[in-house]
Amino acid sequence: MSVSDEQDRIETGRVSRFLKMAGLATSLLADKALGRAADGTISPQAAQRIADALGQLKGPLLKMGQAMSYMTEFLPPEVTAILAKMQNNVPAMGYFFVAKQIEADLGGPVERFFSSFERKAFAAASLGQVHRAVLKDGTPVAVKVQYPDMDRLVDSDLKTARMLIEGLRLSAGRKYDVSDMFDEARIRVLEELDYRREADNTDEFAAHFADYDGVRVPKVYREASGARVLTLEMMPGKTLGQAIQDGMSQEDRNHYGLLLIRMFWEEYFGLAMLHADPHPGNYLLHEGSIHLLDFGSVKRISPEWQTASRLLLRGMLTDDDAMQLAGNEMAGYLQPGDSPEKVELVRQIWQMLFAPYRHDTFDFGVEGRIGASMQVMHDYAHQVGIRMPPDAIFVHRAAGGILATLFQMKSEGRFQDLILPWVDESPQP
Question: What is the pTM of this model?
């Protein structure tokens, strides 16, 4: 492929990107052009068309869709069906651009920093791609290189994304409010563009989990990292997604399921930083441990949110309605004076989400649980016009992604034992 072909395929031109997405957003409102399914929802063909277009555009638009695709509780199913298709890998950029990015960001050619560098990426995503390489001292590493012009495209892409999301909302014929979701997702996307921030996040997680049994975080090599290039320890293991696809023993399903939940609450209450990109490709399984990857999207948890969460969790575990209400109001899920019907619907939502912690043992392989909970949430959003607290958006993304993975894994275990120490009255378990 020639350089000019590669430039055409990356689609970094503001006008071409805007026109492509404007056309998609407009078509969402035209039944004949879009092609509706028999029940009036968006057709699978149309959903694939939108997802394919976003995958070719890459960048902030794709990242925004991926960020919002985990928020299944508070978006119409027609919308999440489209966004979920954006989780797949996207086409990689050619080595010409990779070398240019490295030289511009690190101040020298590839050969100055690496004794060998594989030209073909082994992983490609929304904002960048990853190459295998070897440092000058012989250390094998993974080099994450951002696609060209991502910072230049942010403003125009995010404006276009808002237009697209609004088109998706209106096409579904629902009164879903996604403004807070969009604003929070926008903040996270902007943060992910700075690989120096991701390096700092990685170091914080690595320090916290240094002596933690069952979790490892890669080392950052600062001498070969910058704002658009991030060089990390090459971690061994098979991705969780691949392990599920290949087939796992029930023993491994249970072990890694419990470890994922234990790690989540350690992040939430122990570190007060939440890994907010729960894609199965970001977990490597190796000899009973989880190697955690990709710290571009991290949500910091405030002491106030931890307090509200403890109230809510304790109230749910002890069936204390007053404590649940206090936690919901402190977090912003409910407001003083909300109707009894709204309070009851919120209670039902939490009962289903917290089901793994309300039983001595819980089996994620039991069919029907997650479908029922999602239906209640959609009914709630439709009836009362839910506005999720902005601080909760990426918490739900992280928690929902992990729970969905555990349903895929069909894990079983005593999950209640992992949350009880954290919801004690004391601030530490």
Answer: 0.81
